[in-house]
Amino acid sequence: MKLTYHTFDLQLKHTFTIAHDSRDVQPTLIVKLSDGNFSGFGEATSNPYYGITIENMISSLETVKDFVENGHYDSAEELWDKVHASLLSNSFAQCALDEAAHDFFAKKKGQKLYQTWDLSIDHNPLTNFTIGIDTVEKMVAKMRELPWPIYKIKLGTNEDLLIVQELRKNTDAVFRVDANCGWTEAQTIELAPKLKDLGVEFIEQPLPATDLEGMKEVFAKSALPVIADESCIIESDVAKCQGLFHGVNVKLTKCGGPTAAKRMLAEARSLGMKTMVGCMTESSVGISLIAHLLPLLDYVDMDGSLLIKNDPATGVTFNFGNILYAAENGSGASLKVYNA
Question: How confident is the model at residue 338 (pLDDT cuts 50, 70, 90)?
Fold first, then answer.
């Protein structure tokens, strides 16, 4: 087995702004696992909010490279278990490796990834398309640029209600809103019924992750369901979200990849919570992997590859919110140019 790295600067079509970040370029790391016959690809983007850089992801992967290339493991799950202790401080690096391993072993079996997980794609949810914080005029222009059945609207400004009111004048699409920890308890409870009247389906992570008492009040009094994001990072967080959130948004990079994500989603379902997976502005490599988790989800946010101008990969495609799988086995993703 050979482990190699490919780095890219993904150019965003528009400046992407949320409550605590703004960017025009998204650096990403794509890893490749190959035995000479089959190659698996995985991805994780850098993230200053979590202290993740391309350099520290590669550095972390270098600590397990000898085992990855020369050790014994017969599945992605077995590899995850054997390297987890070494990658505990960098879940993004583990995610990229885990995605590549799942892709590799599915290709080796001659199956699509969802088939190796015994999942049916007959009732997949639609993905939303994200509208980042901007002037109302530019947010409206972004919607007109890509008509879509569901929009996720990033909020966390002093004019959040006005923004949603103005956007509603321009589309009949379902809205979801994401405050990225930018609201208070009182704000959330006050805004929720007004947002519900404007066709908002749910609120994602309204309060800072540390405000547990505030979330108890929001959970009890909000007119809309609330979905955890920053409050649900790793597996042990799922149970903590019960009674605070109506559902969880699992990010593969934050939890260490699909191996851990599948366990988190199963636990959330067992606790009666809604399930969602979100992306981190990945290319078609990371986005294609998410597509195979769709049968386990109530909601999905996998628009990363739609937000970039220079996707270095091919994979799943989209038709008005519907996800179309690639013909290839595994995740279906391939790099357009790489050194084989």
Answer: low
pLDDT tens, position by position, 96-142:
999 999 999 999 999 999 999 999 999 999 999 999 999 999 999 99
Determine contact, residues 132/18, Cβ cutoff 8 Å.
yes
**What is the residue range of 45's domain?**
2-111
Q: 139-188, pLDDT tens digit by residue?
A: 999 999 999 999 999 999 999 999 999 999 999 999 999 999 999 999 99
In this structure, what CATH number is given to the domain that contains residue 202?
3.20.20.120
* Residue in the block written with tokens 């390297």: 83
CA atoms within 13 A on the CB side of 191: 31
Q: Does 197 count as an annotated binding residue? A: no
Catalytic annotation present for 154: yes
Taking phi over 0 as left and psi of -120 to 50 as alpha, with beta for the rest, 113 belongs to alpha
Q: Is 178 annotated as a binding residue?
A: yes
Q: How many domains does the structure of the chain reveal?
A: 2
The span from the CA of 34 to the CA of 32, in Å, is: 6
Model-wide pTM > 0.85:
yes
**Any catalytic annotation for residue 251?**
yes
Domain termination residue (choose one: 61, 79, 111): 111
Give the CATH number of the domain where residue 18 resides: 3.30.390.10
